[in-house]
Every structure is written in structure tokens, then in C-alpha cells.
Amino acid sequence: MRADYIKMTTNSYKFKLLWMLLLSFLAGCTSNSTSYRQATLTVPSPTTDSAYRSPKQTARTRIMGQATCTIHQMQQLLLARNPKVSKSYLAYPKIFLEEGAKEGVRGDLAFAQALHETNYFKFGGDVSPRQNNFCGLGTTGNGVAGHQFATPREGIRAQIQHLKAYASYRPLANKCIDPRFQQVQRGCAPNLEDLGGLWAYPGYDTKKYRSLAQAKANKDSYGHKIKQILMAIQSTK
Question: pTM for this one?
Fold first, then answer.
């Protein structure tokens, strides 16, 4: 009896040991499976990670960033489009780049916008040269002149600040002199192409297109027209 009991006890111990090993193995498999699921959840989403952005998204022109055009290029395009321009306006590219750098806004992009809004500083619209308002701040058409600034630099600074209001949530580096800064929904237009219908309303030629979406599809909205000027500056030698 004693030998049989010892043998049975030994077999029982072996059985328990094998059972424990099996349970440990199964637990390890479950743990590894859970870890794998957790790892897969941390993979960057294609809609948020820059590495997965579509070509359509990356083709847009960011308002925030460093200028890529030189003062010389900006001056030369202005002279090419308006040979009779007053020499005082040739000093503006430098101011645009300086004010843009302070706020992290592309100064060359802002200059392209000013060229579009003033018809290459020929003016002729609701805004007069003495207002130092080069982007149409406060103009609503029908002869409404909009805001006036004491100096060209202040007018350019207000324009840069207004662009930053549209393109970014970051605080201003300089004291706010943009009278319409608080009226903008911050960060609603990070790209130049987004400004149609926001900065300028309706932001497209209603005689050519039935909607803003149609104008954007044809790359002929307010923002696209400014982009064409910016690209012309970039290609100037």
C-alpha cells in the first residue's frame, strides 16, 4: 500500500505540475495578445500624422512659417507689374518680412496679398494710399473705406496680426493693433486657400462660378489668386 500510495502521490504531483505549466503557457499567450492589441492602437492615424498626409493636403500653402522669397524678388515682381510704382513702396518688402518674422507669419505671402488687394499699389478701390491699409481691413464694398493706420509699418503689422488670427492659436508677439483681431475665430484658416469666404466674402467671382466650392475646385478663389502672385514672386530672378 505504501509503495502504491507513494507512486500515486508522485503521479498526482506530476499531473499538477503539468497542469500549472499549461496554465502559465496559456496566460502568456493571452498577455502577448493583449500587448499586441495595445501596440496596434498606438499606430499614428493617417488623418493626423504628417507622414500619412495626402498630396492634396500637403499641396496647400501654410500661412504660418518662414518666408521663402527675397526682398529683391518681391521688388522685381512689383516693378514688373507696376513699372510706375512710387519708390517708397519698394521699401515695403523689407517691412513685410520683418513684421512677419516677429509673428511667425510668412511675410512674402502677406506681401502677395497686399499686391492683390491694392492692385500692385495702384489702388483705385475703396481704400486710398493715405490709409496705410494694404489688405482691405474693414472694407465691405459700396465705398466703405475701412480702417486707417498712422504709418505703413502699422498697417503692415495689423495685416500680419490679422493673418495670424486666422491661421494660428498662438498669442501675438507685439501689442495688438489689428482692430478686427477679436472678431476672428482663431485658427479657422491655417492655409492661404482657406481665406476665400472668410477674409474676403464671397471670395470668388460670382459671374464665373455658382459657388465658392466650384471656384476652389478650379483654383480661382480669393486665396488661390494670392497664391498665383506668391508663385510669381518665387519664380522671379
Answer: 0.75
